[in-house]
Design goal:
Layout lengths: L7 E5 L4 H12 L3 E6 L2 H13 L3 E6 L5 H15 L4 E4 L4
Parallel strand pairs: 1-2, 1-4, 2-3
Length: about 90
């Protein structure tokens, strides 16, 4: 991945290993991250891992298996930070 400093990436559905890896790769490339999932425990673990690596991340608890949950995440992100540069929605289940 290229240098993504000053870019905002949203990764929705980070419970899977693939979702976690995507979030970590964006962080490693320098992107500011918003991660979202229904599992507070999984969010906390991924957020901790990213912060330990020097990444800039916030997490949002949301039912990411539903359209309304995904819309909630995007709405919160836009309100707090503006329009994201990247949105990755991981498949659930």
């Amino acid at each position: 991945m290229e240098n993504l400093k000053r870019e905002l990436a949203v990764v929705i559905g980070i419970s899977s290993q693939m979702g976690t890896n995507v979030a970590i790769r964006y962080a490693a490339a320098g992107a500011m991250l918003v991660i979202a999932d229904a599992s507070e425990k999984n969010l906390a673990a991924v957020e901790k891992k990213i912060k330990e690596g020097g990444g800039d991340v916030i997490s949002i608890i949301a039912d990411t298996s539903s359209e309304s949950g995904v819309k909630k995440v995007i709405q919160i992100t836009k309100k707090r930070y503006g329009k994201p540069n990247f949105v990755v929605i991981m498949p659930s289940g």
